[in-house]
Amino acid sequence: MVRAVGRAEGPARASVWLEGKGRARRGGQPSGLDRERITAAAVRLLDAEGLARFSMRRLAAELDVTAMSVYWYVDTKDDLLELALDQAFDEVRLPPADSDEDWRAQLRTLAGEYRAVLVRHPWVSPLAGTFLNIGPHSLDFSLAVQRVIRRTGLPAHGQAGAISAVLQFVYGFGTIEGHFVQRCAAAGMTQEDYFRHAMSAVSDTLEPHEVIRQSADLMEARGGDTVEEMRERDFAYALETLIAGIEVMAERGR
Fold this sequence. Notes:
With 254 residues, the chain is mostly helical. Helices cover 65% and strands 0% of the residues. The protein is built from eleven helices and no strands. It has helices at 35-49, 56-63, 67-70, 77-89, 103-120, 124-128, 136-150, 156-187, 191-206, 210-222, 227-253. The chain starts with 34 loop residues before the first helix and ends with a helix.
């Protein structure tokens, strides 16, 4: 095991998965711990307290062990965060590789599953932008998306762009949604109350601005009686717009 002092020295590793650290150590393991238990506890702590407050000491206290016991299984905090990130991707339900379901339906499912993970775990989005996302569960998700996009009829040179369009849209949508839910919880308010309070404050402050006047009809046409309903309509419509664009580009490619 790398000593504690050694963890702060030397160049940063590119990924825990490239250093053989994604595999649990064997032999002489202290405290009755294992890699899976530590990772699961890290996920729970990140959900409860957020990324900014997460620390190895806090995790050790949660597990009722010493910090050095945790370091028997992971060399650095970043290693553990990368393991937690990949664990979150294990929650994504993937279509079977041999499924003959229409690619549009599969893409809707994958987009919805990815969004749900980003909302359920707001810490996932900053970590997904920090690490390489090459853990086994992340790779399974990426492979599932590739399989679906390959079935769209898009030319090979356009498939990576289509994947980016869908995943970056969901990433942005889910990140903002997750942060909004988090802000509401921190304020001790429901999403409805927080939304009405925020919109009222914005309208009162920026009433002369043209964007406020221009937004009134958009909000009315948006539909939905609750924040969740409005958000669902927005997500569904945006995703259908992307799917329609893929269909058009696939037809052009023929």
